Amino acid sequence: MTSNPAGPAEPDFTEPGRNTPTPTAAARTLAQKVWDAHLVRQSPGEPDLLYIDLHFLHEVTSAQAFDGLRLAGRPLRRPDLTIATEDHNTPTLAIDQPIADPVSRTQIETLRRNCAEFGVRLHSLGDADQGVVHVIGPQLGLTHPGLTIVCGDSHTSTHGAFGALAFGIGTSEVEHVLATQTLPLRPFKTMSVNVSGSLQPGVTAKDLVLAVIAQIGTGGGQGYVIEYRGEAIRELSMEGRMTVCNMSIEAGARAGMIAPDDTTFGYLKDRPHAPQGADWEAAVTYWATLRTDEDAVFDAEVAIDAAALTPFVTWGTNPGQGAALGASVPDPADYANPDERAAAERALTYMGLTAGTPLRDIKVDTVFVGSCTNGRLEDLRAAAEVIKGRKVAEGVRMLVVPGSARVRLEAEAEGLDEVFTAAGAEWRFAGCSMCLGMNPDQLAPGERSASTSNRNFEGRQGKGGRTHLVSPLVAAATAVTGHLSAPADLSPVGVSASVSASATSTEA
Amino acid sequence: MEKFVSHTGTAVPLRRSNVDTDQIIPAVYLKRVTRNGFEDGLFAAWRGDPEFVLNKPERQGASVLIAGPDFGTGSSREHAVWALQNYGFKAVLSPRFADIFRGNSLKGGLLTVVLPAETIEALWALTEADPTVEVTVDLAAREVRCADLTTGFELDDYTRWRLMEGLDDIGLTLRHTADIDAFEAGRPSFKPLTLPVKV
């Protein structure tokens, strides 16, 4: 430690009883263990300085950060802990052509120039490992248990499925990590979401997380890292766990985590950047310690019964405004809280819905299967299984956008592309696509979608567009009937056309 | 970064909850590679409505935004902070902010102040009744003042000090480079590296 290179000395912020370091000997949660293992520096009253193991970059939130480095004459500290891809802006058609939108093109070209200048590994459009940043990290075997992972994207919480502490950051923080490989942070609170029992057939990780968000609200997780626990979580595949952790941010939580287990290790083994040989043994030994101690105390606890869950969809304009598919559009008058009532009223106006309408009667124009929430191979398989031998309903457009170029290749090797195109769906190239409509994949004003993505905010999928968040199974069934549906609502393949909305049962 | 000690200006009462960052600035406006010029995208979807509060002639030049709970939820885009700053806002008051937005704002010098819902309601009433009434956000005193209303707010000493000095976080962290070097020396070999590329 030398003199202060910049500005005034730090005053003493010590306040008795505030910000005392976590005693590492006491019982700790998974999140606390990972936090403690990355402490570079602690000083009373100041934020903890946390080491960052892995930093993902994409074109939208990095340009100004690189510019900041350049202006200050600062080097990139660890190019070997940094990786970039192009996803938010990239077209999903004609990817061999120059990007038509000049502003999108500039942003992509800026990323390419920055990566070349600073020596960052970049997976560009056309590369087999290009894709949505949160799909490629796990796929490459870079996402490991116990890491701290950041990216200028709120859905970085996805990587918590491996037992990593992974969270989204702003561009100033991106610049901070580029320059120092650390972040100054105040400790998060911890919340346990315990999901007991088993999910029923046809009920997926997406339904589960939408139900969690509806229960705790879009602000309920604020300030927390959520740890998902319980039998139903243990029974999920890594893909399902990623879907759950991905949407933690929609409950306001900074991160979601799931303790690593044999499912995690099995997924990682032999991936390109997974440890090998003796390193693998050492890693698994360490990873196995990454679980919440028996007597650790969470700051908040939520309990969910998995067996009671049914397919879940949103009706409003935030991800907490959801209900079971078998329910009806709620009446804003039933909300006691005036803010919630006003929000529900505004949502129904925007969505063009009337209170009391059965959710199954809502007709859609577009079905979107993809995104960092549900754009992995398992998601595409689930949707393909439903749509196989069936047709997309007249007047409905179905877009299937793999989460990464690798997912697309794997899906094609299984013939999933043919299943989708035979049904009348469009098979696209990888990217964020209609999840946020930064590329040409957008809803027109007033158009309505059933979307496997993560946000139903006003205008998220295109100005004036109306979004219902659904699972891949519900998305595929909805594409077939043209109105919100579950696979159980469909007639067996080859029997007849889909059942009508009025004939659907009240189950689910 | 500009120092923030105290700011006085007129206000925009935004009676909405859950204003997510897609509302603050839609994704189509995120394509610039600089930190300025984002004011055109601010609340873009609502700006077409002449009745939207920001469009009212009496709200021009306002620099304090008074919003409902859960302001800044959703996407991590720091462009939301830049759009508010580029437009001319110096401070945002709300009963509750989303974590990432709050972090972004305090790093960039946009002061986000958490006040109880009833105080926000009182400030809405005051600023709606008289658009010329000024709101003072005094970081030095940790107080918000408007007409007869004076209310304290909390902000930790460290962040307050950094904002009042106008210090950037990176410079502060680089003072501790020796600690970072020491931490890196203990890195286990099983942790992943992005380079060299493995297939």
Strand content of chain A: 15-25%
Q: In percent, how helical is the residue content of chain A?
A: 25-40%
Helix-and-strand structural type of chain A: alpha/beta
The H-and-E topology of chain B, N to C, reads as EHHEHEHEHEEEHHH
Return the structural class of chain B: alpha/beta
Overall spatial form of chain A: globular
Strand ordering within the main sheet of chain A: 5-4-3-6-7
What is the straight-line distance between the termini of chain A? Answer: 62 Å
Major sheet size, sense and barrel closure of chain A = 5 strands, parallel
The overall pLDDT of chain B, averaged over residues, is 95
Number of strands of chain A: 19
Task: Explain how this protein is built.
The complex is a heterodimer of chains A (508) and B (199). Chain A is of the alpha/beta class and 508 residues long. Chain A contains 16 helices and 19 strands. Chain A has helices at 30-36, 59-72, 102-118, 133-139, 171-180, 205-216, 231-234, 238-246, 262-268, 277-287, 338-351, 371-374, 377-387, 405-413, 416-423, 472-481; strands at 39-41, 48-51, 54-57, 82-85, 121-123, 148-151, 165-168, 182-185, 189-196, 224-229, 255-257, 300-305, 312-314, 322-324, 366-369, 397-400, 426-427, 448-451, 466-469. In chain A, the strands form five sheets. In chain A, strands 5-4-3-6-7 form a five-stranded parallel sheet. A five-stranded parallel sheet of chain A has the order 17-16-15-18-19. A four-stranded parallel sheet of chain A has the order 11-10-9-12. In chain A, α3 (102-118) links the parallel β4 (82-85) and β5. In chain A, α13 packs across α15 and α13 (377-387) packs parallel to α16. The longest helix of chain A has 17 residues, at 102-118. Chain A starts with 29 loop residues before the first helix and ends in a 27-residue tail after the last helix. Chain B is α/β, with parallel strands linked by helices. Chain B has helices at 21-24, 44-47, 79-87, 99-108, 117-129, 157-165, 169-174, 177-185; strands at residues 6-14, 64-67, 91-94, 111-114, 134-138, 143-146, 149-152. Chain B has a seven-stranded mixed sheet with strand order 4-3-2-1-5-6-7. The longest helix of chain B is centred in the middle third of the chain and has 13 residues, at 117-129. Chain B starts with 5 loop residues before the first strand and ends in a 14-residue tail after the last helix.
